[in-house]
Write a structure and sequence with these properties.
The protein is an alpha/beta fold and 248 residues long. The chain is built from eight helices and seven strands; from the N terminus they run βαββαβααβαβαααβ.
């Protein structure tokens, strides 16, 4: 897929799925800007902007500056997200609020900047990274799962609002993927294999394909949805979980 001459924004681009997505777009010729609160690597193959997507004023300031320099925006990928674990009655209120502020509020803040521009130019594609946790409840993930379910609905609503202007909005919902976030959940040497087999006592399903997803597998689906190969696809949620949610 060729994205030469296209301008792409990716949030959460410091590491994980956001990083791999931004890198893939860059390799396809796009002019990419990655946003994050930290960029731990020494070098990135795309422009980087420090940004806390949960900060409404900061998002407006940074994004308006970039749009003033170059008005055209072809693709937005909302990949920023955080995970706060804990049983519902034990979860700190701040963890609940932070999870929604980043996972849902961050995308909302980006939408508020991007929607008027894409509506005006009557083109563009938005892909938002939710989670299979929006489809299947998981013990200890009430904040994360609820935020991703809200994010999915928000994204599809934006897609409905933008469809008359030729702008497509889709969602990808990854399952367990080999990222730093996922590895915080692995507490034993065989944790990856245990995740594949499943944890019935936690109501966590196994993975029928027998493997954990790699970030590039998520990134390539995001790129497809942003490309002209998906020119008639909008308002869809593509679950990328190796069959773990059994099609739910």
């Amino acid at each position: 897929m060729d994205f030469s001459g296209k301008r792409v924004w990716v949030t959460g681009a410091g590491k994980g799925i956001g990083y791999h997505t931004a890198r893939l777009f860059s390799e396809a010729g796009a002019k990419v800007t990655g946003f994050d609160v930290a960029f731990p690597l020494d070098d990135y193959p795309y422009a980087t902007e420090m940004l806390n997507v949960a900060d409404t004023d900061q998002v407006a300031s940074v994004c308006q500056r970039l749009l003033s320099d170059e008005p055209q925006l072809d693709v937005l990928v909302n990949a920023a997200g955080i995970l706060r674990m804990g049983a519902t009655d034990a979860l700190a209120l701040q963890d609940w609020q932070d999870t929604f502020a980043v996972n849902v509020g961050g995308a909302f803040n980006m939408f508020r900047v991007v929607i008027p521009r894409m509506r005006e130019q009557r083109s563009g594609a938005i892909v938002t990274v939710a989670s299979d946790a929006a489809h299947t409840p998981r013990t200890g993930m009430s904040a994360y799962g609820a935020s991703k379910a809200a994010l999915k609905n928000l994204s599809l609503t934006v897609g409905l609002e933008l469809a008359p202007f030729g702008v497509r909005c889709n969602v990808v919902s990854p399952g367990s993927t080999d990222t730093d976030m996922q590895r915080t959940l692995w507490t034993s040497p065989d944790a990856e294999q245990q995740r594949i087999k499943g944890f019935p006592e936690q109501f966590k399903l196994g993975i029928p394909l027998g493997k954990i997803a790699r970030p590039h597998e998520i990134a390539s689906t995001i790129m497809f949805l942003a490309s002209q190969h998906a020119s008639h696809i909008t308002l869809q949620d593509i679950v990328i979980d190796g069959g773990a949610t059994l099609g739910a």
